[in-house]
Amino acid sequence: MPSPGARTHPVTLATAVLASAGLVACAWAVDAARRENATRRLHRQVVDLLLNALTADDPVTARHSRRVADLSYALGAASGRLARDEMATLRVAALLHDMGKIDDRFFLIVHSRKRLSEEQRAQIKHHPHQSACILEPLEELHPGLMKIVSSHHECWDGSGYPCGIAGEEIPLAARIIALADVFDAMTQPRSYKEAMPVEEALEKLDEGCGRQFDPHLVALVEGDRVLDRWIEIAHAGLDDELRHLAHPNPTEAALAEAEAIEAEATRNHPS
Questions:
Q1: Is the pTM of this model over 0.90?
Q2: Given 101, 114, 125, 147, which residue is catalytic?
Q3: FRET partner for 116 with CA separation of 20 to 30 A, picked from 30, 53, 109, 262?
Q4: Is 62 part of any domain?
């Protein structure tokens, strides 16, 4: 008859094998999590680098981009139609939607205090495509990013640019950014215009409903869940912009100098 200790060795061996397998699995999981966290940190650094490049010496654009990202995220969350990874892509797209404006050709156009000429309007319509091209390296991490960014000036009725696509053909994230972009532009002051009250800005969004904007998204904006957050972002932005206007940045000085040069050239060489 086997002694009581006869089965001790195989049981101990099996236990050791299972324990080793568990340790290997834990080590793999910890390493995978570490690598994933490192990738996320690197990704955030790349996005920050791009945003810094876009907004160098131009804190106005920096604040606008961050507000558009916050507005877009609130509306995207309320829509309930975007998965977690799609929400991350929405935020990146909103932060960098104007990346194409980094081109020096757009500087005076973007910051112009005058009505744009037809030539300037035609030129600025290239910036969504340029933005998408610049962001191509991020497409693998954020599938659909290029299409979203290139489409944020498309209109619900097909009258937008650069491709003239309409309705559901326009990515949902692009339709969200379009609303947030216009709302922020209207509700924030600039050196050449006062901020539009939120109530009036909402009326403008209503006027564009079904023409420029997705009707379903406009309705969501006017719901308490989104509206309260949008008002909060707009008021905080207003405080920031008023502080900025009280202490002009180098961009404003450069614009004033450029306009003075343009005015002098016009006087010397009238058309």
A1: no
A2: 101
A3: 53
A4: yes
